[in-house]
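Milestone 3.1: sequence recovery, worked example.
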């Protein structure tokens, strides 16, 4: 009777895994010449990279000659569906025992479509355990040699023992012994092994990513991976950029998202990538205007901070957009400061009013420096628009008061899983108050200023309250001595409802 042997360089070396335990068939430690080992068989259904080989005349690999009844070869072929079984010559084999290679037919499984491991399909420790365990028991030196002939250990590698990706993982494997061997033999590569939980796609992370991208899609604003992690909505667990990118790749593979030139967009919304690029050029023009006229506005007495908000803060204005400003003034001088800023911008012909909108400044949101808590303006339940508005505020003057704004709102912002960063510095003026502003604040800081404030309040407040009678149900207007908020059509509720429909 002719013997048949499979040379196993992977998991078949383990009797229990091979399904031949308890039978009197040979398992012979051996060396195969003319090949080198890698992990380039991507078992996508299981999520890990299995062992593979490639021809190399100068190399040899350690493995196990597994005796298999001829009648069972088709069963192994079916099991090893990612490989082709080929016959090899006896002269390519040597037994580690030094004994002659037994007569018979010898086979090797060769990968059909070798590909390197990825973040999504990494090396799995459970599979490596099965490869090494028999050799650790037989002869630790053989196990060391086996590790030294393993390629691709510098690729993504996870410890999945808690939830083994390898479905045939047997009980009783000494994981500590395997770890000691790996630490001794390939310490640098072993140190890069990560816990599988760090790479496994997490449903809550998927939900958060899609929620974030769908919200910004309302404004035709696709995000890069770095922007996704910066704007990630209500995800409060520690997150590594590699895990985020792996999850984004998973969503691309599943068809939920499309990646175009580094931007991630919803499937069917690919055109927004070009929209964003076009709007970036428009934003550059608007920023030049904001900086030019900002130098006049910052000279207005009692002005503490001027910040750009909404579309331009994201570099996402259209040609028809205005330039929205959020302005903080000294308590007790709200009406005077607003009047002077309005006067300056009107003089230069850049104030928004009536149908004159594109590229003009919208003076619709003033607060005093003791009224910068954004919770006062939040919609009931949740208000993602306001949270992103606050996070992305871009001050052009008044860094000291902006930092106070951040400090006051950081806990509220954290409820949305968001935090402030230092990107605001790009457009910030580092400005020392000049003698003219100091003098005007001294001159108008007492009785004279009080009289002007009363006069302007009486005149402008009455006019404003009268115009409110003609506003629709979606208006959001606040007129007090601490807050002037003129949003004739507040679309936050509309955005919230559109977003919730798609989440």
């Amino acid at each position: 009777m002719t013997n048949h042997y499979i040379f196993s360089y992977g998991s078949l070396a383990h009797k229990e895994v091979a399904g031949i335990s308890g039978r009197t068939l040979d398992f012979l430690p051996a060396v195969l010449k003319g090949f080198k080992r890698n992990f380039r068989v991507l078992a996508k259904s299981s999520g890990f990279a299995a062992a593979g080989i490639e021809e190399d005349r100068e190399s040899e690999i350690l493995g196990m000659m597994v005796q298999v009844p001829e009648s069972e070869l088709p069963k192994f072929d079916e099991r090893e569906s990612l490989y082709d079984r080929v016959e090899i010559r006896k002269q390519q084999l040597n037994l580690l025992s030094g004994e002659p290679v037994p007569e018979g037919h010898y086979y090797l499984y060769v990968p059909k479509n070798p590909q390197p491991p990825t973040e999504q399909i990494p090396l799995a420790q459970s599979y490596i355990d099965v490869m090494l365990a028999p050799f650790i028991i037989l002869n630790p030196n053989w196990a060391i040699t086996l590790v030294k002939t393993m390629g691709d250990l510098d690729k993504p590698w996870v410890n999945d023992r808690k939830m083994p990706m390898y479905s045939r993982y047997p009980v009783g494997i000494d994981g500590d012994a395997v770890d000691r061997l790996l630490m001794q033999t390939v310490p640098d590569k072993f140190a890069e092994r990560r816990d599988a939980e760090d790479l496994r796609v997490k449903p809550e992370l998927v939900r958060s990513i899609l929620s974030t991208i769908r919200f910004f899609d309302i404004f035709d604003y696709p995000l890069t991976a770095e922007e996704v992690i910066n704007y990630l909505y209500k995800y409060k667990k520690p997150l590594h950029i590699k895990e985020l990118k792996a999850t984004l790749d998973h969503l691309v593979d599943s068809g939920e998202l499309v990646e175009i030139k580094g931007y991630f967009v919803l499937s069917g919304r690919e055109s927004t990538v070009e929209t964003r690029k076009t709007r970036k050029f428009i934003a550059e023009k608007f920023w030049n205007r904001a900086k030019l006229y900002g130098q006049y506005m910052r000279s207005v007495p009692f002005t503490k901070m001027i910040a750009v908000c909404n579309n331009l803060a994201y570099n996402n204005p259209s040609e028809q957009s205005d330039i929205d400003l959020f302005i903080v003034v000294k308590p007790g001088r709200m009406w005077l400061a607003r009047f002077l800023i309005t006067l300056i911008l009107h003089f230069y012909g850049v104030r928004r009013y009536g149908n004159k909108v594109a590229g003009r400044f919208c003076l619709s949101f003033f607060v005093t420096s003791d009224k910068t808590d954004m919770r006062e303006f939040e919609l009931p339940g949740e208000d993602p628009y306001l949270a992103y508005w606050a996070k992305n505020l871009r001050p052009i003057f008044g860094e000291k008061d902006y930092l106070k704004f951040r400090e006051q709102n950081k806990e509220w912002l954290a409820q949305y899983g968001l935090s402030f960063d230092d990107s605001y510095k790009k457009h910030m003026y580092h400005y020392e108050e000049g003698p003219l502003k100091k003098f005007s604040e001294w001159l108008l800081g007492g009785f004279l200023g009080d009289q002007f404030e009363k006069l302007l309040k009486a005149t402008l407040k009455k006019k404003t309250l009268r115009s409110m009678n003609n506003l629709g149900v979606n208006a959001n207007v606040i007129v007090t001595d601490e807050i002037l908020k003129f949003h004739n059509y507040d679309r936050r509720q509309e955005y919230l409802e559109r977003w919730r429909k798609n989440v």
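The chain has a mean pLDDT of 89. Residues 234 and 414 are 8 Å apart (CA to CA).
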